[in-house]
């Protein structure tokens, strides 16, 4: 009864997933074992949480920002000793502290209003992530799986795909949520790449972000042509034409030039 009385809040971007089929499908994608540490971002009223706990992970940390949901969650999962509710905003949580030195699996129906910001945090935790399965706005999911020379190919595409293999799993219609959002949703799976560049994640993030400002301009108007030449990139190209490997090469050459200028 409590979950029926709960009112979703626009400020938290809350849309409760009510499709049992989709919930089970998401849980299937995580391949939960008794050794797994799972982190769920945005517990809500616990529909997905319940399915995850049925599969008996070692521990499930549920991160939830909305105080109104706390009594609902605590009553619902009181019998589960492997569930810990973290009553915080995701951005106040240090995932390394939850990992206990182990790899973690991250899952969540991400609030639309902060989904991109949450995603951008994932490469910073790469070393402790086993995999991520996220429900997102379809438009964001399409950005994550976009190809060069398309409108959806953005900073988010390049930054995330530098560190993760990203798979578009399924689209989820608005009718599967309460209240129905105005957009279609989608589920993606992110698996850390084995060979990733070892340079500073924050520096690379800022570098790629700046390149995507005024994306229609030729690269030679943003980057020294000698640097482009060393990275094997034609100066007349635009940022949206570059492959992920081009960004990695370009930032590597940029760092080399920066290092030389200091010496």
From TrEMBL:
<keyword id="KW-0963">Cytoplasm</keyword>
<dbReference type="GO" id="GO:0052908">
    <property type="term" value="F:16S rRNA (adenine(1518)-N(6)/adenine(1519)-N(6))-dimethyltransferase activity"/>
</dbReference>
<feature type="binding site">
    <location>
        <position position="109"/>
    </location>
    <ligand>
        <name>S-adenosyl-L-methionine</name>
    </ligand>
</feature>
<keyword id="KW-0694">RNA-binding</keyword>
<dbReference type="InterPro" id="IPR023165">
    <property type="entry name" value="rRNA_Ade_diMease-like_C"/>
</dbReference>
<dbReference type="InterPro" id="IPR001737">
    <property type="entry name" value="KsgA/Erm"/>
</dbReference>
<dbReference type="InterPro" id="IPR020596">
    <property type="entry name" value="rRNA_Ade_Mease_Trfase_CS"/>
</dbReference>
<keyword id="KW-0489">Methyltransferase</keyword>
<feature type="binding site">
    <location>
        <position position="42"/>
    </location>
    <ligand>
        <name>S-adenosyl-L-methionine</name>
    </ligand>
</feature>
<feature type="binding site">
    <location>
        <position position="89"/>
    </location>
    <ligand>
        <name>S-adenosyl-L-methionine</name>
    </ligand>
</feature>
<feature type="binding site">
    <location>
        <position position="64"/>
    </location>
    <ligand>
        <name>S-adenosyl-L-methionine</name>
    </ligand>
</feature>
<feature type="domain" description="Ribosomal RNA adenine methylase transferase N-terminal">
    <location>
        <begin position="22"/>
        <end position="194"/>
    </location>
</feature>
<keyword id="KW-0808">Transferase</keyword>
<dbReference type="InterPro" id="IPR020598">
    <property type="entry name" value="rRNA_Ade_methylase_Trfase_N"/>
</dbReference>
<dbReference type="Pfam" id="PF00398">
    <property type="entry name" value="RrnaAD"/>
</dbReference>
<dbReference type="InterPro" id="IPR011530">
    <property type="entry name" value="rRNA_adenine_dimethylase"/>
</dbReference>
<dbReference type="InterPro" id="IPR029063">
    <property type="entry name" value="SAM-dependent_MTases_sf"/>
</dbReference>
<keyword id="KW-0949">S-adenosyl-L-methionine</keyword>
<feature type="binding site">
    <location>
        <position position="17"/>
    </location>
    <ligand>
        <name>S-adenosyl-L-methionine</name>
    </ligand>
</feature>
<feature type="binding site">
    <location>
        <position position="15"/>
    </location>
    <ligand>
        <name>S-adenosyl-L-methionine</name>
    </ligand>
</feature>
<comment type="similarity">
    <text>Belongs to the class I-like SAM-binding methyltransferase superfamily. rRNA adenine N(6)-methyltransferase family. RsmA subfamily.</text>
</comment>
<keyword id="KW-0698">rRNA processing</keyword>
<comment type="function">
    <text>Specifically dimethylates two adjacent adenosines (A1518 and A1519) in the loop of a conserved hairpin near the 3'-end of 16S rRNA in the 30S particle. May play a critical role in biogenesis of 30S subunits.</text>
</comment>
<protein>
    <recommendedName>
        <fullName>Ribosomal RNA small subunit methyltransferase A</fullName>
        <ecNumber>2.1.1.182</ecNumber>
    </recommendedName>
</protein>
